[in-house]
Amino acid sequence: MAHQTTDSFPSPRSTVPDPWDVVAACAPHLCIAHQSAGRVRLRLLAPGIDAAAVRRADLERLHAAFRAMPGVRELRINPLARSCLIAYDRELIPDTAWPDLFAQRRTPAALALLGLLHTAARACGLSPTPKGDVS
Questions:
Q1: How distant, in Å, are the alpha carbons of 108, 123, 127 from that of 45?
Q2: Inter-helix orientation angle 108-123/56-68, to 10°
Q3: What sign has the CA pseudo-torsion 61, 128, 39, 35?
Q4: Which residues touch 112 (CB under 8 Å, ≥6 apart)?
Q5: Residue-wise pLDDT tens for the chain (135 aa)?
Q6: Is there a contact between 6 and 121 (Cβ–Cβ < 8 Å)?
Q7: What was the pLDDT predicted at 82?
């Protein structure tokens, strides 16, 4: 039987998601487990997602996106603990950016962090680039 396509579901690359919509969708599933100057540990709260369900290719792409992000000095992902440690340059990413972003507060710090994340994700192929967008 031939595979049929349908127009009822858009291609993942057919639309560009608003970065704040992505944050709104992710925020309930992530929390800041710990933060100190220049370091933040994020924890995945979704109990229905076990570590075996996280595909290695996705982790590698996520790792590449964060490593491509200006200001990130170190990234350690621990799938078994469902956590991610990020060491960052406080000159580029203020400490207030992380809690503001996850609380969906559109502060200058959160907007700067979101911009860096979005640019790095697009550079690594994790987010579509709109036509004509060269940033």
A1: 26, 27, 23
A2: 120
A3: negative
A4: 92, 93, 94, 97
A5: 444 444 333 444 445 567 777 777 777 778 899 999 999 999 988 665 555 545 555 567 667 777 788 899 998 888 788 888 999 999 999 999 999 988 889 999 999 998 888 888 777 776 654 444 444
A6: no
A7: 83
Instruction: Look up the pTM and report it.
Output: 0.69
Sorted by where each begins, the domain ranges of the chain are 19-123
Residue 47 confidence (pLDDT): 64
Beta-sheet strands, E only, within the chain: 30-36, 39-44, 72-78, 83-88
Q: CB of 32 within 8 A of CB of 102?
A: yes
36 pairs with which residues across the strands?
39
CATH class of this structure's domain 19-123? alpha beta
CA–CA dist 24, 102 (Å, integer): 8
Please give the Cα distance from 58 to 64 (Å, whole number): 10
21: which 2 tokens? 């919509």
Can you tell me the distance from the alpha carbon of 42 to that of 30, in angstroms, rounded to the nearest whole number?
7
